[in-house]
Write a structure and sequence with these properties.
Layout (H helix, E strand, L loop, with lengths): L3 E5 L4 H13 L2 E6 L6 H5 L3 E4 L5 H15 L4 E4 L14 H29 L2 E6 L12 H21 L4 E8 L6 H13 L5 H15 L7 H13 L6 E4 L3 H11 L1 H11 L1
Parallel strand pairs: 1-2, 1-4, 2-3, 4-5, 5-6, 6-7
Helix pairs in contact: 1-8, 3-4, 4-5, 6-7, 9-10
Length: 271
Amino acid sequence: MDKVVLVTGASSGIGTMIAQELKRTGFTVYAAARRIDKMNDLRERVIIPVFLDLTNEKSIEDCVQTILQESGRIDVLINNAGYGSYGPIESVSMEEAKRQFDVNLFGMARLIQLVLPGMRENHCGRIINISSMGGKIWTRFGGWYHATKFAVEGFSDCLRMEVAPFGIDVVVVEPGGIKTDWGVIAANNLKDAAKGSVYETNANNVANSMIKNYSGNMLTEPEIVARTVKKAIVKRRPRTRYLIGFMAKPMVLIQKIFGDRVFDWVITNLS
């Protein structure tokens, strides 16, 4: 049976690749984002753009309602939308910190609340939350970002146990370094947040390191994430977690084996 899939954050990067991969698989794909104007290429691939602002309750409700009216159900929800609000914890405004949680966690949670009734009624469904290796480890000046991703991990674990009796699977995908503009945007946010503060010198060093890493050739192509998501959908019994991409497994392993202090030293000397 053709699956109806909703992919958030689909106007660029990983989200675009996921939408394209799943359309090639034969699914009906709705690509949700704020920047509808950026998705003309998806329209040409018969992928259906839909407006979504995860910080706006009505926008979230309208997005889900539009899909239900057109297709009758949502079989798979892929929560990919998110961004990295890097900056010194002391300097980042609480308004920005709350927005980081609204986009990376609360908007995702509201979408899940709205699709669950239909999935329960059909006694099947799959929710795939794109987290990060940053939900298991940490970096300098990423406090608010990592807080959201650690929250996504725990939220997903609890959700998985709650909805399993209704035939619904919950999967977490934890990418490492992926070749998108995410890192450069996060680095620029870091520079802006730290400007004029006592953290400025260290923050600029970290930001420049991020820009260098995300401008190089070592990172994993976003298509790898897209294929992992497809695997998590088509497998009868998917894994609960997929840790993938550049440096994801080594970094998580270093922290697990050597502990927090050694990991802090590694991160400090890498950035």
